[in-house]
Amino acid sequence: xxxxxxxxxxxxxxxxxxxxxxxxxxxxxxxxxxxxxxxxxxxxxxxxxxxxxxxxxxxxxxxxxxxxxxxxxxxxxxxxxxxxxxxxxxxxxxxxxxxxxxxxxxxxxxxxxxxxxxxxxxxxxx
Length: 126
What we know:
Blueprint: H1 6-18, E1 31-35, E2 39-45, E3 51-56, H2 64-72, E4 75-77, E5 82-88, E6 94-100, H3 107-123
Antiparallel strand pairs: 1-2, 2-3, 3-6, 4-5, 5-6
Helix pairs in contact: 1-3
């Protein structure tokens, strides 16, 4: 399983510190942070070296309209130049993922990614 490099882990630690949280990697070498309103933010290294930043928002998706809104929240994000990839977790919770190139992943990049994902969920009414 790939792990974040030292600079990427430092960016995650700085992000956590500014939120008043502690960054501790899980067994896979990734990081997760739970926010009451925004949901669960996960950061991990992808197989190809990208840094995957995902946000899972806990919502009730009992119908196709709710799932459709969750899936429609994805798409190209012009400000970041990346595509937010939508999906559902094993428990039918919506998740959006951004794949950042490994070079240049820093605190401002992580902040922008988290803000963008949260904004996409909000725009979708989730």
